[in-house]
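Lab intake sheet, docking and co-folding queue.

SAMPLE TYPE: protein with bound small molecule
LIGAND NAME: flavin mononucleotide
LIGAND FORMAT: SMILES
REQUESTED OUTPUT: full 3D complex as structure tokens
PRIORITY: normal
SUBMITTED BY: R.K., bench team

The fields below were copied directly from the construct record.
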Amino acid sequence: MANKIGLFFGSSTGNTEAVSYQLQAEINSVDGWECDVHNIGASTPDLILKYNYLIFGIPTWNTGELQDDWDIFLPRIAEMDFKGKKIALFGLGDQNGYGYNFLDALGVLADEVLKQGADLYGMWKNDTYQYEESKAEIEDHFMGLGVDQEGQSEMTPQRIKGWVQQVIAEFSQA
Ligand SMILES: Cc1cc2nc3c(=O)[nH]c(=O)nc-3n(C[C@H](O)[C@H](O)[C@H](O)COP(=O)(O)O)c2cc1C
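RESULT FIELD (auto-filled):
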């Protein structure tokens, strides 16, 4: 039986949704792994907790804020027990337009899932991005994959491939 990953995304203008399906295709091409994609706006805690492997995708909106559907869902995360869950995160943002708040929502969501006992995977080197400040940053890493469809869309396919390989290797080891 294949290992199942539940990928939950929020998306206001479709970029995070499109990246979610690209991640799904990449994961499904790996032997022994399968990915279901869900919109967080139509999801429940019960559905999320059915999966032991999880990916959450979130864009930053309104200068450092969570995307609307994630903003609404966040209080429910605070009631969930993620102990034993393996979770990887990705975020969308615009480093040129919002260089002082680049991927902030990724950092906010990472803090929340860590508080609920999750093990976080898929930390991503931040040296190919140019920005001033980010709540998603820890030293030379982001708390997950960063995707910038405004400024660096040409790098997205390679980033997706590299991150999926990394996350599956980390999920498999753990
Ligand atoms: C009004 C507005 C505010 C934004 N604020 C931020 C921000 O603070 N930080 C950031 O990294 N990106 C910011 N962005 C960029 C979005 O995160 C980016 O366009 C993303 O791809 C949108 O994803 P979605 O289409 O899935 O909603 C903003 C975009 C708009 C239009």
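REVIEWER NOTE: The mean pLDDT is 98.
SIGN-OFF: pending second check by T.M.
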